[in-house]
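quick one before i forget lol
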Amino acid sequence: MDNFIDVSRLSSIRMSAQDYHIEYLDAPHHPPARLPKGKMAVYMFFYQKNCLKVGKVGPNSNARYVSQHYHANSSNSNLAKSLLNNTSKLNSLDIDERISTWIKQNTSRVNVLLDARADYPTLNLLEAYMQCRFKPLFEG
């Protein structure tokens, strides 16, 4: 995150280590119970050392943060749907209709929480930085 703080300074955004909190949920993991009140986040899913997805949520997107990526039919775009629709990219994996369980058992999740008082350009910059840094297999 030190590099992101440097990037934010170049963008005239004032940020320090006190302005964010990182949660590491190693595989197997339990999804977060809720998006903490007054927070927004950038989250990442990793399978082994590969980044599968980077996403962001504003302070009013609890369902997106907590559950949508674990259930293929929960939204138009989510990790579960991407995995099921792209099994050729992951041909060595045993992914099936129990995708929610597979994600929880096999992926690690990293959540970077920001105070909701930070503006959306800061959230967007953090998401873009993480996408450039980790090059996720799936976009959006």
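fyi DSSP finds five helices and four strands in the chain.
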